[in-house]
Amino acid sequence: MTQYISIQKAMDKGSGKVSIRGWVHRERGSNKLKFITLRDSSNVIQCIFERQNFEKLWGDIDHLQVESSIMLTGEIKKEKRAPTGYELHVTDFQIVGKSDKFPISKDQSVEFLADNRHLWLRSLKMIAILKIRSTVFGAIDEYFKKEGFYEYHSPIFQAVQCEGGADLFSVDYFGKKDVFLGQTWQLYAEPAIFGLEKIYTISPSFRAEKSKTSRHLTEYWHAEMEIAWATFDEMINYGEGLLKHIIKKVVESNTKELESLGRDPKELEPTIKKPFIRMTYDDALKILKDKCKMTVQWGKDLRTVEEEKLTKLYNVPVIVTHYPKEVKAFYMTEDPDNSKVVWGCDFLAPEGHGEIIGGSHREPDIDKIKKRLRDDGEKLEEYEFYLDTRKYGSVPHAGFGLGVERVIKWICKLDNIKDTIPFPRTMERYKP
User: What is the mean pLDDT of each run of 10 residues along the chain (432 residues)?
Assistant: First the structure.
């Protein structure tokens, strides 16, 4: 029985007889020779069919179209002129699945590629991005387990809001209307730290933000952590450690993919080697005014344009802390030295990619939480389970959430977050 190996393993072998299989990525030829670029998940290779060896089957070979699936056997040789430095001289072949005229060619519109996303996943660009995405997910899991965290899962169907009622997706839950898709795990994660102390998750989150920017998805993947006994600074240190670990793993594992996307891996090395920039909200406003000629009124959240200007001043992530209480969520701890600000932070990626982590120390005072909820127009009885965490042996604790697609967008130096996920969901698109 023929033993098939990946294209990359065949090239690693370098010479001799090999059997490979994959999909026709490109094809060209003449009456005497047929050149096919074959693609599998590992790489691409140029394959040559000589008519004199396949006279009776030449009609089948000559009519092979892009995305036909085939299995080949032949002699692999080095060839500097070939796209990846090797070529396969085919001695035997089998057509597994013929292809109609493939609808995707060069210079297709963004909208056309979105309509045909199920086919665009085969592109070398998407293959490279999805390989990096896989590395990122593995690195997140590896980091938290290495740090002694337990994996924990909260419900997707939730009965309370955490980040803002205007951004909730409501669902019909057996006739009940006050049920929502989770924006975050947090309110259901905090109860678990009293048993497990250090927990994390990687899970979908849903935000009904009416935004059409290059940084927003309505369904995205959220890496979140919560830790008992932690100070604000300890939580921030975990965020910095996580990002350093992710970048290190991608640079080690996906150099080829980064370069194919036009991302120089050396541009990511400062994030691994240098400490992140830390500043307060007040510091950020002063820097924006002095260095970027942008005046932000105190109490306003930083907009995308201001985050972009700020992060372009540095080659590592910027951590902004001590935001005004009014622009942050009800569960964030008031600074004991200044009740107008909270122990909350945002990690901003360099090169203008913006916020990738949001975190905070959690407010321990149950009366302050109740007041913030009332001020937000929330019904306290809906939050009884959460308020119980402050009534029975509460301890200082903190946590953060990382937007995985935003991190991938930065790592891959992409213009749009839609390219970071197989099937993006946005305000205007829910299919295919």
Answer: 95 97 96 96 97 95 96 96 95 96 91 96 97 98 98 94 76 92 94 97 94 89 98 98 98 97 97 98 97 96 94 96 93 94 97 95 92 89 92 96 98 96 94 93
Q: How far is CA 93 from CA 20, 31, 89, 248, in A?
A: 10, 18, 11, 41
Cβ proximity of 231 and 361 under 8 Å: yes
Type of residue found at 13: K
Please give the Cα distance from 323 to 301 (Å, whole number): 8
- Which tokens belong to 256? 């080829």
Structure tokens, 181: 């898709």
Please name the amino acid found at residue 156: I
**Domain 115-420: CATH superfamily, name plus number:** Bira Bifunctional Protein; Domain 2 (3.30.930.10)
The architecture of the domain spanning 7-97 is Beta Barrel (2.40)
Residue 42 sits at φ, ψ, to 5 deg, of: -95, -35
**Is residue 120 within 8 Å of 79, Cβ to Cβ?**
no
Q: Tell me the pairing of strands 176-181 and 157-158.
A: antiparallel
Count the alpha carbons within 13 Å of 136 in the hemisphere toward its beta carbon: 26
Pairwise CA distance, residues 254 & 234, whole Å:
30
